[in-house]
Design a protein that fits this description.
Layout lengths: L15 E8 L2 E8 L6 H15 L3 H22 L3
Antiparallel strand pairs: 1-2
Amino acid sequence: MKDAHDHFVFMSNLEGSFSAKEIDGKLNIILRLDVKGKTASELVETISHELALHGSDIDKIISAYEKGGIEAVQKLFTKDPN
């Protein structure tokens, strides 16, 4: 079953995705990877891509969460899906 916030996943594709959601009242930054059949170098490339492209937004995500909770994070993702 999909989580109600799955549509806020950054860069969802076959290799990986970056998202944020609230679990048990705490902000969780989630990096998902498809590791099946991937070499170590392919995984390093995917991890580097996700963190370089989206990891730079972690401060912005945390700040939004501190100010307005998960709803503010969702609004941030909607305004800037990249």
